[in-house]
Specification:
Helices cover 34% and strands 25% of the residues. By secondary structure, it is an alpha+beta fold. It has one domain: YbaK/aminoacyl-tRNA synthetase-associated domain (YbaK protein). A five-stranded mixed beta sheet has the order 5-2-3-6-9. A three-stranded antiparallel beta sheet has the order 1-8-7. A two-stranded antiparallel sheet has the order 4-10. Strand 7 and strand 8 form a beta hairpin. The N and C termini lie far apart (94 Å). 25% of the residues are buried.
Length: 199
């Protein structure tokens, strides 16, 4: 890569330089999810911002939640005072956020001209990490800096804990197999042995 070239989209780079705040630009392998990013950077998913693009009253809206939490759609509706909120289809995302990797949108209202909501659970972390416009680059900054460069930011609690997936009970399956095997052995033991015919 040319030293003079910028690894992240120009509009994002220009915005950050103009803001004059302290932040860290991190290069990493290509990642598509918040959990993968957390594992790659060896940090907690709670400190990784997950950007979700939705549509409210016909307008795009960005919601930022921690990687270890899910979006609570009912709470989002109440905050936005909207009757209906849906996820924005990918073609519409590509059209609105041109020049940005679809799953790596930086949550800056000032760049995109859309409402941006940030969950307080994420903002309670000492530092947060979110995408910088490319799947291979992320930004690390403090919540205070994020709020400073995002004066239009709407904050609230609109996330919920992820439901834990129940693992299949392997022990129970093994126990059933053992019982069947034991029954088969018992039946063989009870079966009378065949006597040889006398000549």
């Amino acid at each position: 890569m040319n030293k003079n070239s910028c690894p992240i989209p120009k509009k994002v780079d220009d915005f950050l330089k103009k803001s004059g705040v302290k932040f860290e630009l991190i290069e990493h392998k290509t990642v598509y999810t918040a959990n993968d990013k957390a594992a790659t950077l060896k940090i907690k998913p709670a400190a990784v911002g997950k950007v979700l693009v939705m549509k409210s009253e016909g307008e795009p809206v960005i919601a930022l939640v921690a990687g270890d939490r899910n979006l609570d759609m009912e709470k989002i509706k109440r905050i936005l005072k909207a009757k209906k909120v849906d996820f924005l289809p990918e073609p519409a995302i590509k059209e609105k956020f041109k020049g940005i990797d679809p799953g790596a949108i930086p949550p800056f209202a000032e760049i995109w001209g859309v409402k941006v909501l940030a969950d307080k659970k994420l903002l309670s972390q000492p530092k947060i990490v979110f995408s910088a416009g490319r799947y291979e680059w992320s930004l690390r900054l403090t919540p205070a800096v994020f709020k400073k460069i995002s004066p239009q930011l709407i904050t609230g609690i609109f996330s919920k804990a992820k439901e834990k997936k129940l693992k299949p009970k392997k022990k129970a399956v093994k126990t059933v197999k053992k019982v069947i095997k034991k029954k088969a052995i018992v039946k063989l033991a009870k079966k009378p042995a065949k006597h040889r015919k006398k000549k």
